[in-house]
Design goal:
The complex is a heterodimer of chains A (304) and B (314). Chain A has 304 residues and is mostly helical. Chain A has one domain: MetI-like (MetI-like fold). Chain A contains 13 helices and no strands. Chain B is mainly alpha-helical. In chain B, a hairpin with a 2-residue loop joins strand 1 and strand 2. The N and C termini of chain B lie close together (11 Å). Classes of the chains: A mainly alpha (304), B mainly alpha (314). Chains A and B meet through helix 5, helix 6, helix 11, helix 12 and helix 13 of A and helix 1, helix 5, helix 6, helix 10 and helix 11 of B.
Chain lengths: 304, 314
């Protein structure tokens, strides 16, 4: 089948633009989405390189400069901390480094959980959609039942079960966040499975698992990609929500949720402690949303 | 229609059952128990306490006992809040949470739909763009950021307009005084308003392109009339099915809002209960929330069926 795919692609390229080339062109022309991508790349790069270019460690406590404003802070403050461009937190740690370390945790968590949900959702949805009939009915009924569960409550219980083991927790969150993905993939699969190339594969003797993984899944990539870019920010929010309730990651490690929660406590005396983490998180979530919208417009041009 | 309603209603029962079962066993899988404390109890006392709450029996038997009690409407005693039953705790907290949640939901639906319709009617003009960018802000900025900022602006700095002091109380319930409700309700409603506005705009834009709307326009109906009596019915469909998830989101948000504003709702019981292994309390709150969500989903299904006859037939 791969050979057929290549010939098809070759024919399309001679004729003109393939779906993907077309989509990429539209995406590149979408200014909001491109800005989102550049900003995200910058934040990721900063977060990854933080320990190499900053003179402070994320857990370096300095009791001489507790909750001090950065030098450029315009309002009157109790103390200043020269050299700390975002100021310092409640025990004198550099806020810039902590925001960047928070970015590491928040982004990593969002990605891990999304990958887990992607894996489960795509396989489940494609299987249900392709098999159809009674199995499909049963599988989607299970999804319906799970859908009406109040998820955050289960996540909080999971948090207690895993005793704040962060990675495991996010595998677990991913494992409960796959429902929408499964629905989207199933819907797409239903519309694809009647197509001739599936029939051809079946006539060629490809088994059901082979058809699902080699022929169905590659063809649902578009909508799935859109949904993935919209899932990541949702999961980053979930993490910060848990951290805010005091159920998230533990000191001295940090995440945006923890930083925002600390900042909200000291908002009156040290507003920068809330401002910078909140700003970074909002900008990141914005970027993901713009990329998601851009991808949707690029892949599904009829909605333009 | 009756048959459809009955089928949906019966479908809700296994859902609730699954929720109870999952919550029960997940809670028990957590290490530790409600009577583990810093000071270890003497073994005999611990045994007696556990026996009194049936915690010494096998897990399966405890589950059956719990289900039996539940069938009689008994949610059991709270393990940590001595002298209170779970029913009493929920009874005092639920009215607060319900009032908060329902007000926020009503506000989100009304304001969100209004903004969404306005944006749809001025599609791709500045009104549309400004509503949609504000909506994007509302979705991306989490509740626990808006709450402290609004508290700071309206509560602590205080705002004086035309000689009136517009500052609002920053916390407490105060017997449900409306001034105490303003900030929590706004914080809770903000993200949902944004989502509703986006959904409403999307579906309204599509409906306004339909042929029957062009007909209505051609025969000379006023725009307001067309939107309210022709377009809204079709455009509201996706919104109605969003009611269930919206309630779930508002309940989730109320966990944070109740904590920030110090309100005596049931959200705080949940987090405390989960950390303290107060099994019955956690289960009680989960059952309460789940029933609310299921009930609203049922109502939403009925409304969709009423608005869109095609649904009933399938």
């Amino acid at each position: 089948m791969i050979a057929t795919g290549q010939t098809l692609k070759a024919v399309e390229e001679v004729k003109g633009r393939s779906l993907w080339v077309d989509a990429r062109r539209r995406l590149l022309r979408n200014r909001a989405a491109m800005a989102g991508m550049i900003i995200l790349a910058l934040i990721t790069l900063l977060a990854l390189l933080a320990p190499f270019f900053l003179p402070f460690a994320y857990d370096e406590i300095n009791y001489d400069i507790i909750a001090c404003a950065p030098n450029w802070w315009p309002a009157e403050t109790v103390c200043r901390a020269p050299g700390h461009i975002f100021g310092t937190d409640g025990v004198g740690r550099d806020l810039f480094v902590r925001v960047l370390f928070g970015a590491r945790v928040s982004l990593a968590v969002g990605l891990v959980a999304t990958l887990v949900s992607l894996l489960i959702g795509v396989l489940y949805g494609a299987t249900a959609g392709y098999l159809g009939g009674r199995i499909d009915g049963l599988m989607m009924r299970i999804v319906d039942v799970l859908y009406s569960l109040p998820f955050v409550f289960f996540v909080i219980i999971l948090m207690v079960i895993f005793d704040r083991n962060f990675i495991l927790l996010f595998v677990a969150i991913g494992a409960v966040e796959w429902l929408t993905m499964a629905r989207i993939v199933r819907g797409q699969t239903l519309s694809i499975k009647q197509k001739e190339f599936i029939e051809a594969a079946r006539a060629g003797g490809v088994g059901t698992p082979g058809i699902i993984t080699r022929h169905i899944i590659p063809n649902v990539v578009g909508p799935v990609m859109v949904y993935v870019t919209l899932t990541v920010p949702g999961l980053i929010l979930t993490e910060s929500f848990l951290s805010f309730l005091g159920l998230g990651i533990q000191e001295p490690l940090t995440s945006w949720g923890v930083l925002i929660s600390d900042g909200a406590d000291q908002m009156e005396t040290a507003p920068w402690m809330l401002l910078f983490p909140a700003l970074f998180m909002a900008v990141t979530l914005f970027s993901f949303n713009f990329i998601g919208d851009g991808l949707r417009d690029a892949l599904d041009p009829k909605d333009r | 229609m009756m048959r459809y309603a009955l089928r949906r209603f019966l479908g809700a029962i296994p859902t609730l059952f699954v929720i109870i079962t999952l919550a029960f066993f997940m809670m028990r899988a957590a290490p530790g128990g409600p009577f583990d404390s810093e000071r270890r109890l003497p073994p005999e006392v611990e045994r007696n306490v556990k026996a009194a709450y049936n915690l010494d029996k096998p897990l399966a038997q405890q589950y059956l006992i719990y289900l039996g009690k539940l069938a009689q409407g008994d949610l059991g005693p709270s393990y940590k809040n001595k002298d209170f039953t779970v029913t009493q705790l929920i009874g005092t907290g639920l009215p607060v949470s319900a009032r908060l949640g329902l007000t926020a939901m009503a506000l989100a639906l009304l304001l969100g739909s209004f903004l969404g319709i306005c944006a749809a009617l001025r599609q791709n003009k500045w009104q549309d763009y400004s509503v949609m960018s504000v909506a994007m802000l509302g979705i991306t900025i989490p509740t626990f950021v808006t709450a402290p900022i609004l508290t700071l602006v309206f509560g602590i700095y205080g705002i004086t307009l035309f000689g009136h002091d517009l500052s609002l109380p920053v916390g407490g319930w105060n017997g449900g005084a409306w001034r105490n409700m303003i900030l929590p309700v706004i914080v809770l409603a903000l993200p949902q308003t944004a989502i509703v506005a986006r959904m409403m705009r999307g579906s309204m834009v599509e409906v306004l392109r339909a042929n029957y709307i062009r007909t209505a326009r051609a025969k000379g109906l006023a725009v307001g009339r067309i939107v309210l009596s022709h377009a809204l019915r079709a455009a509201a469909l996706p919104l109605v099915s969003y009611l269930g998830p919206a309630l779930a989101a508002i309940l989730t948000g109320s966990l944070v809002v109740e904590q920030i504003f110090g309100l005596p709702g049931i959200g705080r019981y949940f987090v405390q209960g989960a950390l303290n292994r107060d099994y019955t309390l956690v289960l009680g709150v989960v059952i309460c929330y789940a029933s609310l969500i299921i009930a609203l989903n049922f109502l939403a299904d009925m409304m969709v069926a009423w608005l869109d006859p095609r649904v009933r037939l399938t």
